[in-house]
Amino acid sequence: MNHLAASELILNEDGSIYHLNLRPEQIAETVILVGDQNRVDKITQYFDTIEHKVQKREFHTQTGTYKGKRISVLSTGIGTDNIDIVLNELDALVNIDFETRQIKEEKTSLNIIRVGTSGSIQEDIPVDSIVISNLGVGFDTVMHFYQSEEIQLQDFNKALEEHLQINPRNSKPYVIESDASLASHFNSSEVYEGFTGSNVGFYAPQGRVLRLPLYDNSMKDKINSFSFKGKRITNLEMETSAIYGLSKLLGHKALSVNAIIANRATGNFTKDGAKAVDNTIKYTLEKIATF
Ligand SMILES: O=P(O)(O)O[C@H]1O[C@H](CO)[C@@H](O)[C@H]1O
Ligand SMILES: O=c1cc[nH]c(=O)[nH]1
């Protein structure tokens, strides 16, 4: 079997993986991903125990227990480019033997749940609500660097391509499903089921104009009006697509849970973002405790 070279599987002197700075025993099989490193404490404040806190760059991890369940909470920073690092290194922690530098025969499948903030693009999904992403669409390029055609919903890709008429210089949007068992467990009358778009930026890529004009002024409306097989795009953020894509390719279960802090259709922004995020955290922890 192939031995992974020092330049490919990069380990630090203490045996931890390059960016996350974690050793294999430090990661739980259920992992909560958040963008904001300060959100890690906001989640682990509810834990019964905390084993360790590790930080390198924007990657801040704490592992502990909530209602007896071992959970790691890890911040990814912003963007799908960071997700490429986080998902590959998380997978390496459980599925590569760091001593022999070989891929393990028996694989571990992680439960990966993102707790993020997001902007609704539909008038009827208000600020302070929670959206569970059944589907994710990537406007980023990460998954196009992997052999991922088979896990993409090609009929959705085609319908989107036709509807959006995106700048040909941009990458082609790709659609990927969440893990069905997690999505069904997290669903309830308290949340909206959604189809989440992940963009490569917060401003023009999400149709926001401050001083700079957009390449295509109608893109936000076109994303809003897309409908295929009874599904419409509900909200925009910056990580879900690559989390779904890399999780599916690597054999992990993923779900994205979104605290809606902005409504782009009405122009509203939440009056209490901390509370919106806290409600989403509590909802997620209770669902994890019973999964
Ligand atoms: O609140 P987080 O998890 O960072 O998520 C959202 O917030 C950031 C932009 O403000 C992006 O990362 C977006 O996906
Ligand atoms: O509108 C929003 C709000 C949060 N995060 C985003 O990426 N977009």
TrEMBL record:
It catalyses: uridine + phosphate = alpha-D-ribose 1-phosphate + uracil. Its EC number is 2.4.2.3. InterPro entries: Nucleoside_phosphorylase_d (IPR000845), Nucleoside_phosphorylase_sf (IPR035994). Pfam families: PNP_UDP_1. Residues 31-282 form the Nucleoside phosphorylase domain. PANTHER family: FI09636P-RELATED (PTHR43691:SF11), URIDINE PHOSPHORYLASE (PTHR43691). This is Uridine phosphorylase.
